[in-house]
Design goal:
Chain B: Keywords: Amino-acid transport, Cell membrane, Membrane, Transmembrane, Transmembrane helix, Transport. Chain B: Part of the binding-protein-dependent transport system for glutamine; probably responsible for the translocation of the substrate across the membrane. The complex is a heterodimer of chains A (260) and B (219). Chain A is built from nine helices and ten strands. Chain A is of the alpha/beta class and 260 residues long. Chain B has eight helices and no strands. The chains are: A alpha/beta (260), B mainly alpha (219). At the A-B interface, helix 2, strand 6, helix 3 and helix 5 of A face helix 5 and helix 6 of B. The structure holds adenosine-5'-diphosphate (ADP) and magnesium ion (MG).
Chain lengths: 260, 219
């Protein structure tokens, strides 16, 4: 580090500049600008089709942005200047630092719960097996599934599967976690357990981007809420301001719909 | 008059023919699996330099008769300086043939694994190859194994065609014995019985493998 860097304000964990994504004629993201500070919990709300998933998927490059820049701790993620092979390595390295949890869990059905959590640290990070195992067991304890380590995903409830998926992502010790409507596929009575795990994670200081329709969670756990529509950030505010005093007409309209 | 006692005398010859048939089958099976997996992965690749040769290979094999393929390799290749001899020509021809069918079977299995599996694997930092090997292929295997096994049973029966390029396997053994005994009915029926033994054993093995993979990979 250079001496001057310590005098600068804290750099954002994640910085997004005029991000664009289109599929042919369809513009899904129309210039999104966003900064997420370390330890911040950013909640993303907005109607279906507004580009929330696409935004998250651009961050870990499951989708390739058509314009703009995304930086993780100052490192350009969508760095098109690299050679193809170099880019592959770079992206895999980025993905190790960015955990993602999906609406549909996507656990590996041919592996036990413990194997699901251990697979990537062993295979990708080439960590020592006992370390990985101890860490996996600890994480499964944290998400309340110590008794399910040798079960297969098909034997678990949706809520349990989703908590395994969170533990699996955490096993890579990511700097940022992306949650894409992780409770939307769950029976209502199972939602609470998953949200509690996410709340614990937020309290432990994880930087999180959370796409959700759970406005209670957004208000309680979120540090900041953004409202997206038609591929742009329409409003960006604290949870209190967003829910009690939204500035934009479209935000008010949306909140009226979902809170009714 | 039918004379089955003659079988007792010539049975060992037929069995040694059957053993060569088995050997050819197993070799072509292993090679055919390698060809099939390679062609399947190439056909799924984004790179057209990989994809188009695979598409061409699969199309070529599936749109021409096996017998002609064997003739090209055994009779034709020596003309361009590749003389493999009857045995290797037979194994290569059969392996290339079953490989093309395996490729379509394997490709079908791979694309039937939900896209979310690849995305989950890649989001954890796995390379495309790691995701394929550890996440996609093990799941595809469950779907692939029954039709793949069917391809192998067909392969065992197809080995009889290499008798036409002078490989003395079960069919050609029977033909030669007929030349000296003039007992075509007895000899061919015995050959058929031995083929049935081989294919049935393969089917039983297949059921066993299927059960094992189902136990390992419950979804
Ligand atoms: N692979 C794709 N090809 C074409 N259109 C897509 C693709 N993925 C998403 N879209 C479109 O992009 C828009 C935004 O999708 P998405 O980011 O999933 O929205 P949200 O998560 O906010 O509901 C939708 O109109 C969707 O149909
Ligand atoms: Mg979505």
């Amino acid at each position: 580090m250079t001496p001057t860097s310590s005098t600068r304000p804290i750099d954002p964990m994640l910085e997004i500049r005029s991000l664009q994504k289109s599929y042919g004629q369809l513009n899904v993201l129309n210039g999104v600008d966003l900064k997420v500070a370390p330890r911040e919990v950013l909640v993303i709300i907005g109607p279906s089709g507004s580009g929330k998933s696409t935004l998250l998927r651009c961050i870990n490059h499951l989708e390739e942005p058509t314009g703009g820049q995304i930086y993780l701790e100052g490192e350009l993620i969508n760095d098109t200047g690299r050679s193809r092979k170099d880019f592959e390595k770079h992206i895999n390295h980025i993905r190790c630092q960015v955990g993602m949890v999906f609406q549909q869990f996507n656990l590996f059905p041919h592996m036990t719960v413990l194997e699901n959590v251990m697979e990537a640290p062993l295979l990708v990070l080439k960590k020592d097996k006992t370390t990985v195992r101890d860490n996996a067991l600890e994480l499964l304890g944290k998400v309340g599934l110590s008794d399910k380590t040798s079960a297969y995903p098909s034997m678990l409830s949706g809520g349990q599967q989703q908590r395994v998926a969170i533990a699996r992502a955490l096993a890579m010790e990511p700097k940022v976690m992306l949650f894409d409507e992780v409770t939307s596929a769950l029976d209502p009575e199972l939602v609470g357990d998953v949200l509690r795990v996410m709340e614990d994670l937020a309290r432990d200081g994880m930087t999180m981007l959370v796409v959700t329709h759970e406005m209670g969670f957004a208000e309680k756990v979120g540090d900041r809420v953004i409202f997206m529509a038609d591929g742009v950030v329409v409003e960006d505010a604290s949870p209190q301001a967003m829910f009690s005093n939204p500035q934009e007409r479209r935000t008010r309209q949306f909140l009226k719909e979902v809170l009714k | 008059m039918l004379d089955w006692t003659i079988i007792v005398h010539y049975f060992p010859f037929l069995v040694s023919g059957a053993l060569l048939t088995l050997q050819i089958s197993v070799l072509s099976l292993i090679l055919g699996l390698a060809f099939g997996l390679t062609a399947a992965l190439c056909k799924l690749a984004a790179n057209p330099l990989l994809r188009w040769p695979a598409v061409f290979y699969i199309w070529l094999i599936r749109s021409t008769p096996l017998l002609v393929q064997l003739f090209i390799i055994y009779f034709g290749f020596p003309q361009i300086g590749i003389d493999l001899g009857p045995f290797m020509s037979g194994v290569l021809g059969l392996a290339l043939n079953v490989g093309a069918y395996n490729a379509e079977t394997i490709r079908g299995g791979i694309i039937s694994v939900p896209k979310g599996q690849t995305e989950a694997a890649r989001s954890l930092g796995m390379s495309g190859a790691q995701a394929m090997r550890r996440i996609i292929l093990p799941q595809a295997l469950r779907i692939i194994i029954p039709p793949l096994g069917n391809n192998f049973v067909i392969l065992i029966k197809d080995t009889s065609l290499v008798s036409t390029i002078t490989v003395v396997e079960l069919t050609l053994t029977a033909q030669r014995l007929i030349g000296s005994t003039y007992k075509p009915f007895e000899m061919y029926v015995m050959a058929a019985v031995l083929y049935a033994v081989l294919t049935s054993a393969a089917s039983m093995l297949l059921v066993w493998v299927e059960r094992r993979t189902r136990k390992e990979a419950r979804a």
